[in-house]
Design a protein that fits this description.
This protein is α+β, with helices and mostly antiparallel strands. The protein contains 7 helices and 37 strands. The two termini are about 25 Å apart.
Length: about 650
């Protein structure tokens, strides 16, 4: 899907007042939005405003004084036209949110040149349109060569069957910039980005997919690669080195964002709130933590660097209730709180002993921190910072917990050796289910190689398991917030890394702050017109269409509101500039909808909970290969740090 600007002026969509097909000159395979008549009305208003500005300038040069021809009257004309332009922009936005317009190929003309016609569809709500667009693009992605044979699932007889709603490979790409040293991918953390601007109306192109911080390491140093996920073409936007190997990372949201997520926006602000900003903490092998500012499009400056007690290696980290928890190789947890200046208080961290084995995995759940040491899970109160309960995950000696993932009222636990996953109830700590991932893996890979878990993720009805052999296993679990028992046979990916899957992480669009209240009420959908057409309605309930006022004219004088009150006005009294970001007649980028939040706004305020049409999952490892019976030994260039970006279609959109 390209840009509509390429089609030129002749490709502008004509007025849609009937259901007849219109042949126009445009490029194929494009999907357009917005009725052309509204854009023509807007252009006419802009033309008239320019003329009125010239007239106002000439009136200012009059030498005589006249009651009905003066600067005040001229300024009132300008204000009236600006209000009409504002209403017309709102009509276009409302129409775009509920209208799908397709360019389809038609018969060749007499000279043999291709022609195209338009097909217009009106949906009842913007969400229906987004779902339709997303399903169309997901279907296109599923038909790509990489996804025609992307996942393997075998029944008892070994026959491969078709899957529904399986993850789709969007792209695989290297993430290491330096080729002088052998960097191997180690871990990653997702950094969300706001999905909307402050003073703009909802626009799909502004949906923020955030970015991914990926750590690759040599034996002595580390490298951070930042991958932007803003569109269908993820790319590395920044890269910098650090002085030690990076073993874990955690994203720390700003205090205002954290209060909104936890529903604490009505409480008194923290004393360090104004100095706070989103950050990413890097846990180092040398026994230190480095804190970097994580805001996109800003230089990555290290804000703080401090060492752990006894310089113990940082194995895992988690953030909860304004505290940073660092799991150490010595079996201790170091707990850091904020100081008044917004930095972490490193002078006297609270230290909690769990055991003698490394704290390899930690996660935050409700008002508790779950941390593993050896074969035990310790449940620590987020406020009391004491061990409240403990779970014996495995009775066999030598079974060390390596990964944990929570879903609903269940927690899945993986071990550093063996291919078995265990499910426990988070409230009763009851053992509920065991799953052996070696069975589906051996159905795909030749020979009975040893299988172990290298990464773990629960994402929208799938338990995704990365293995030491480079393939991923996807197991179905209930989507509701209940007990996440595996309910079917697992799928194994044909796409694999040349070595262990070092991480699995999910990327979702998150609106960081609420939109401020605007002076224009957005329209969730358009009412039905007389002949089946969508009739655009102005924010005040009265039609501002130029066509309806063609005979009687439009009254510009005696304005009831000043232009200063129009906080979202896209023009000034002297000149007018179209807000092209939200109104330009452009094509749809389907992958923009992959993480699209629900644009249902009331009085300019965004819904508390957005609706997404699909979710990105990113896996990391060395290189990329397609698994088959004739797998070759990977070349050196195929062993660089690589990520695979998958889209997870949602069943209920």
């Amino acid at each position: 899907f390209g840009s509509s600007e390429d089609a030129g002026e002749d490709s502008r969509i004509p007025a849609q007042h009937s259901g007849e097909k219109v042949v126009i000159n445009a490029k194929p395979n494009k999907l357009y939005m917005g009725p052309g008549q509204l854009y023509q009305d807007l252009q006419n208003l802009i033309h008239d405003l320019n003329l009125v500005n010239q007239i106002a300038h000439m009136i200012g040069s009059l030498k005589g004084k006249y009651q009905n021809v003066n600067q005040t009257v001229a300024q009132d004309w300008i204000s009236g036209l600006q209000r009409l332009i504002l209403k017309k922009e709102e009509e276009i936005r409302a129409a775009d949110r509920c209208r799908i317009q397709l360019q389809l190929p038609g018969k060749q003309d007499k000279s043999g040149r291709p022609t195209y016609f338009t097909a217009v569809f009106n949906t009842f709500t913007p969400a229906i349109k987004q779902s339709w667009i997303s399903n169309l693009q997901m279907a296109k992605l599923a038909l790509e060569e990489d996804n025609l044979q992307g996942w393997f699932r075998a029944e008892d007889d070994g026959n491969q069957i078709k899957k529904q709603k399986h993850p789709l490979l969007l792209r695989q790409m290297p993430v290491v910039m330096s080729k002088l040293q052998e960097f191997k991918v180690e871990c990653a953390v997702y950094n969300p980005e706001p999905s909307c601007g402050y003073d703009r109306m909802p626009s799909p192109q502004l949906t923020g997919h955030g970015c991914l911080w990926i750590a690759s390491c040599t034996n002595q140093m580390g490298q951070i690669s930042i991958v932007a996920l803003q569109n269908s073409n993820p790319k590395v936007t920044e890269c910098f080195n650090v002085e030690s190997r990076i073993l874990c990372m955690v994203h720390i949201p700003s205090s205002e964002t954290q209060e909104e997520w936890e529903g604490g926006s009505d409480t008194e602000p923290s004393p360090w709130k104004t100095a706070d900003s989103p950050t990413v903490c890097l846990g180092m092998e040398e026994g230190s933590i480095s804190v970097y500012k994580s805001t996109q499009r800003s230089k990555k400056i290290r804000l703080q660097h401090f060492f752990m007690p006894d310089k113990s290696t940082v194995m895992s980290m988690v953030y909860k209730s304004l505290c940073l928890y660092a799991g150490l190789v010595s079996g201790f947890i170091a707990i850091y709180s904020r100081s008044e200046d917004g930095c972490w208080n490193t002078d006297s961290p609270q230290v909690l002993k769990l055991g003698v084995l490394p704290v390899k995995s930690m996660l935050a759940m409700d008002d508790a921190i779950w941390a593993s040491s050896g074969g035990q899970v310790f449940i620590i109160g987020a406020k009391s910072h004491v061990i409240e309960r403990r779970l014996e995950a495995h009775q066999e000696e030598g079974m060390v917990i390596s990964h944990m993932a929570v879903a609903g009222v269940g927690i899945w636990i993986a071990f550093s050796s063996g291919s078995t996953l265990r499910l426990f109830h988070t409230e009763t700590l009851e053992h509920l289910q065991d799953i052996n991932i070696a069975t589906p893996v051996h159905n795909l890979l030749p020979g009975h190689q040893r299988v172990s878990v290298s990464s773990l993720l629960v994402c929208h009805g799938l338990l995704m398991v990365g293995t030491n052999l480079g393939v991923m296993v996807a197991l179905p679990i209930p989507r509701l917030q209940g007990i996440p028992k595996v309910t079917g046979r697992g799928m194994v990916s044909f796409h694999a890394h040349n070595g262990p899957v070092r991480f699995l992480t999910v990327a979702e669009a998150v609106c960081q702050k609420k939109l401020r209240r605007t002076s224009v009420t957005s329209l969730p959908c358009l009412p039905e017109g007389k002949e089946g057409e969508m009739s655009a309605v102005s924010p005040e309930g009265s039609s501002s269409s130029l066509a309806s006022a063609k005979d009687k004219g439009v009254w510009l004088g005696d304005s009831s509101r000043s232009i200063a009150q129009q906080s979202t006005l896209s023009s000034s009294s002297g000149s007018l500039t179209l807000s092209h970001g939200s109104l330009e007649h452009g094509t749809e980028d389907g992958n923009i909808y992959d993480l699209l939040n629900d644009p249902s706004y009331t009085h300019g305020k965004r819904s508390q909970k957005g609706t997404v049409s699909s979710v990105l999952v990113v896996s990391g490892g060395l290189g990329h290969k397609k698994v088959n019976k004739k797998t070759k030994t990977p070349r050196q260039e195929e062993m660089v740090s690589t990520i695979m970006v998958w889209q997870i279609p949602l069943l209920n959109v």
